[in-house]
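User: Sequence recovery, please. Input:
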């Protein structure tokens, strides 16, 4: 790639750069980034403003969760209505059509995750919206869905966090063994067959969408309302034992990729959760190894790509998982860098434009409470957090001996561009322009520099829109 422009001299702070060619290591890598802002997009009063914000932020792809219950007829009835469930005219798509149409207009990719809650008449109990959904009814629904949206959807996913009891039950059987994987397998196969019946010859359907942590089994005292650990869930779905060997006569699943929600804790993106079957952003190698072992058992195709379809860093005032808003911006960029650096990861994501109102502790949704997320770029009031300014131009700074490795993106760009690097030298409280660097084809760049107090990046779009991220400290 072209050499960086000559750096401005800095009296009082000799900050030598050794530029690493972004094109050398990163230019061939592309990664979709899905943005999820369901509340603002569903609401007709906030949709236009939210779309304008996302355009400014550099959004190019949406994740939309479509809830079966929201569109189905007589969803609160225990008795299935008499209707042709494969005919899209028998459903109410009005909540989702404007979102899909707007994405089409803007040429944004759409990942449509079809999930619970489901109609009561589609469950085994006929009393709730998550217990053992009927696979045949789901296949019919997916046929209608495929006929309605068809080619407007570039990527499909089946079920949000099916290893979590808030979305699918039962998770464990009476012996404490995982039960949800087999239920999910039937739903995935039914959903895939439904899309094919709709006329989609080779639908691109993601499996998984798994939550990051859980248990391999539970005791009677613990009870069944716990998550199944994601890798235990993967093995159960694919009929594999603990050693990734076939434990039944199941065939291969026609999954296009594996979707996962690699949330972490307040300890940050490098945190390694206990339990070998748990997968947070800091231990993605566990998932790649699991997928490779599953492929070796001929349960899925080899080299299956990973889609991190839901992610965010909780900030205060979340008292359970929240970090400071300054740390949120730093952690979010570090997590994206981890994803970008893994060649198997082909998609990252941002969950929420605006924070939810405060909710209960993690896990409380299973017991009648409400879990809310403070992962947004804005506070619940709509005021911007540092992440609002950092998300379009994420920046990481990693210490390596006496130097610092910087990595970043100019997300809104449509091709190679130049970003300006600013530095706050040690012992100074003033920001200085250090120089500029040319990015790769997707806006990515990296370089090495001597240590300083903090860094930030500035980018001006061809249209003259200025982006300047928050201060980032080396970790």
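Assistant: Recovered sequence (475 residues):
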């Amino acid at each position: 790639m072209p050499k960086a422009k000559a750096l401005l001299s800095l009296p009082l702070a000799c900050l030598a750069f050794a530029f690493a060619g972004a094109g050398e290591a990163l230019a061939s890598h592309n990664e979709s980034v899905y943005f999820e802002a369901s509340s603002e997009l569903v609401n007709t009063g906030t949709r236009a403003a939210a779309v304008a914000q996302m355009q400014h932020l550099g959004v190019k792809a949406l994740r939309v969760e479509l809830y079966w219950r929201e569109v189905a007829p007589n969803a609160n009835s225990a008795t299935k209505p008499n209707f042709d469930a494969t005919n899209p005219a028998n459903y109410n798509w009005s909540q989702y059509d404007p979102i899909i149409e707007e994405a089409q207009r803007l040429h944004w990719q759409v990942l449509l995750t079809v999930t619970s809650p489901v109609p009561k008449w589609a469950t085994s109990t006929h009393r709730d919206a998550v217990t053992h959904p009927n696979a045949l009814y789901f296949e019919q629904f997916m046929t209608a869905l495929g006929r309605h949206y068809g080619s407007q959807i570039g990527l499909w996913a089946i079920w949000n966090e099916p290893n979590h009891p808030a979305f699918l039950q039962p998770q464990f059987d009476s012996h404490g063994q995982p039960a949800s994987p087999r239920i999910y397998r039937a739903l995935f196969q039914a959903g895939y067959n439904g899309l094919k019946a709709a006329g989609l010859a080779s639908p691109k359907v993601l499996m998984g969408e798994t939550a990051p942590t859980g248990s391999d089994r539970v005791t009677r005292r613990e009870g069944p309302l716990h998550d199944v650990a994601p890798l235990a869930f993967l093995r159960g779905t694919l009929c594999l034992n603990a050693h990734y060997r076939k434990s039944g006569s199941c065939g291969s699943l026609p999954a296009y990729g594996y979707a996962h929600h690699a949330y972490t804790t307040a300890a940050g993106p490098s945190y390694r959760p206990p339990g070998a079957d748990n997968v947070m952003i800091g231990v993605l190698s566990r998932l790649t190894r699991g997928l490779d072992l599953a492929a070796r058992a001929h349960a899925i195709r080899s080299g299956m790509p990973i889609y991190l379809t839901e992610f965010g860093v909780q900030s205060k005032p979340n008292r359970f998982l929240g970090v400071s808003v300054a740390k949120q911006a730093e952690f979010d960029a570090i997590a994206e860098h981890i994803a970008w650096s893994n060649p198997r990861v082909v998609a990252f994501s941002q969950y929420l434009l605006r924070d939810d109102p405060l909710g209960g502790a993690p896990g409380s949704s299973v017991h009648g409470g409400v879990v809310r997320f403070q992962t947004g770029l804005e506070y619940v009031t709509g005021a911007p957090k540092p992440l609002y300014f950092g998300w379009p131009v994420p920046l990481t700074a990693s210490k390596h001996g006496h130097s610092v490795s910087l990595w970043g993106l100019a997300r809104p760009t449509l091709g190679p561009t130049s970003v300006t690097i600013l530095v706050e030298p040690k012992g100074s409280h003033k920001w200085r322009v250090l120089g500029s660097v040319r990015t790769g084809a997707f806006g990515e760049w990296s370089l090495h520099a001597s240590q300083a107090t903090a860094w930030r990046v500035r980018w001006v779009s061809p249209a003259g829109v200025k982006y300047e991220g928050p201060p980032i400290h080396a970790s």
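The domain at 31-391 is CATH 3.20.20.80 (TIM Barrel).
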